Amino acid sequence: MDGTKLIFSPLQLLITMAFNQPVKLFSMKLLSSDFAQAPKCVKIFINLPRSMDFDDAERSEATQTLDLAEEDFKDDGLIPLRYVKFQNVQSVTVSHLTPTNHLQAPHFLVLYSFF
């Protein structure tokens, strides 16, 4: 492939969930069948005043950043959140960026309780 340049753009994903009433988040569950293509870092933002775009997600400070390991994606792996930061959540946005040209979006579940 002399003279050919391959450029891969990072793949990004933003997911926002709004709740009908304030909740307390205490952990997150991620499932992925292929860790090689699963996200390695996830940023979590809460109670944003407006919709977030990819540029906002990259330059904004997250409420919590999760550096993920393979065990975090196993069936029994619960990822604890910093409980004091997630006491009055009306919306949560999850962002991740992968440096590869393939992305397997994980299944995720946020565990919460009502006030």
TrEMBL record:
The keyword Heme belongs to this UniProt entry's keyword annotation: no
Species, as recorded: Hucho hucho (huchen)
- Where does the source fall among the domains of life? Eukaryota
The UniProt keywords, alphabetically, are: Disulfide bond, Redox-active center
InterPro entries reported in the protein's UniProt record: Galactose-bd-like_sf, PITH_dom, PITH_dom_sf
Taking every annotated instance into account, which residue ranges of this chain make up the domain PITH?
Answer: 1-115
PANTHER family attached to this UniProt entry: THIOREDOXIN-LIKE PROTEIN 1
| Protein name as annotated | Thioredoxin-like 1
Annotated Gene Ontology cellular component terms: cytoplasm
Tell me the Pfam families matching this sequence: PITH
